[in-house]
Design brief:
The chain is of the alpha/beta class. Helices cover 42% and strands 17% of the residues. It has an 8-stranded parallel sheet with strand order 1-2-3-4-5-6-7-8. The two termini are 13 Å apart.
Length: 260
Amino acid sequence: MFIDSHCHLSFPELHAQLPEILQAMQAAQVEQAICICTTMEEFPQVLGLATAHEQLWASVGVHPDNEDVHEPSVDELVRAASSSAKIVAIGETGLDYYRLNGRSIEADMGWQRERFRTHIRAAKLVGKPLVIHTRSSAADTLKVLDEEGGEQAGGVFHCFTETVDIALAAIERGFYISFSGILSFKNAQALRDVAAALPLERLLIETDSPYLAPVPYRGRTNSPAYVPHVAAALAEVKGVSVAELAAQTTANCRRLFSLP
């Protein structure tokens, strides 16, 4: 009934509890989850999870905020993404200028933009969608996508917290918008207003676990089993039943990632 379009089951907080998490997912009717890669060093473990469990899928990529990690080439990403049918996306990738620590966006953050370009080029070559992370960098994220023809790959802006204008700009380029447990937070009315303005056929739901647990679990370790609470928050915003919201976001997710 539900799909968690973005989680990190390879992270220590969740990997140690994997049997319990998979059991909880089944009880909560969470049929599938996509395990998102954040470094090339992590990729074998992410792929291993997807390979070992029928309901799990994987991506390959390097998170924009990760420094001092292996920097993949286009060819390396293409080879990794082509190595298994369980790999359904490139990313997470994008731009993150939130922690500049005194650095200049133009002078010192070029490495992030080059990494993003590498991922876009690989996604186009391999024919898999992008999982995009953008934080304090929305204008540059769209600019790089346009310069590289990112709409040819498509994908999703995950854990969306930007404005309605940015969301609509992404949708115009063929991308989906994914909402996390933030949508359920008491202080997130502005984000709920954004969600209300977007077409349901372009929306996904996610946990981004182990982070951002939705109400009523806020402050605890998140889990894909909690994605129904994200669905409930989004259904309330959209004025539809949870069943309708689940059916539509599941169809959207399967279409985007070519899931069975």
